[in-house]
Amino acid sequence: xxxxxxxxxxxxxxxxxxxxxxxxxxxxxxxxxxxxxxxxxxxxxxxxxxxxxxxxxxxxxxxxxxxxxxxxxxxxxxxxxxxxxxxxxxxxxxxxxxxxxxxxxxxxxxxxxxxxxxxxxxxxxxxxxxxxxxxxxxxxxxxxxxxxxxxxxxxxxxxxxxxxxxxxxxxxxxxxxxxxxxxxxxxxxxxxxxxxxxxxxxxxxxxxxxxxxxxxxxxxxxxxxxxxxxxxxxxxxxxxxxxxxxxxxxxxxxx
Length: 255
Fold this sequence. Notes:
The protein has 255 residues and is α+β, with helices and mostly antiparallel strands. The protein is built from six helices and eleven strands. Strands 1, 2, 3, 4, 5, 6, 7, 8, 9, 10 and 11 form an eleven-stranded mixed β-sheet that branches.
């Protein structure tokens, strides 16, 4: 199944997975444990006992504020179209994927639209394993963040969407960077940054052949996997040649 097919399905399946308990698992993970009753402090230890909660609060705030940019590789913006047999209309997806250097899918962004329908869908994806309840956020350049709720998860990622119109598409055409944010356990925010360049060219241009796009993505994934394997072999060889990795000299035999 191509990514365009997955994205088309994601927008039509609504929040079934969330309703069936996917979000419930995240809620169970994020629900804080009931605080333990503090033991009565001795007079001599009153100051340290009062300072400990403040220190813990500072550590928690520091963890919550952690935000990292995830390295990766962006594919070109691609437009793929197909016919919706139920509606009898053409559906087009203009998408971009963001993958790890190993070829593993990390994130994606795209616009889904039905011909002659002014209502469109802005769809993004993030890796599985993120906290579901907070949802995801999308930042276009320096604009205020957009909050999106997850709708469904597949083995290659979880998808969220929002209804948009032509004005949003025009704004996206002028965007330089699309930042997709997802929250991990422990409060760390992952930032997946996709370049907005060439979105307008792909969106306004003719659709690509889906088979050609799938073949191109498959070729890219294979090349990235080979590159990752080569780097792993080089690291292993470097580690084996390091001074600390040389075997110790054999002990002299006992007389």
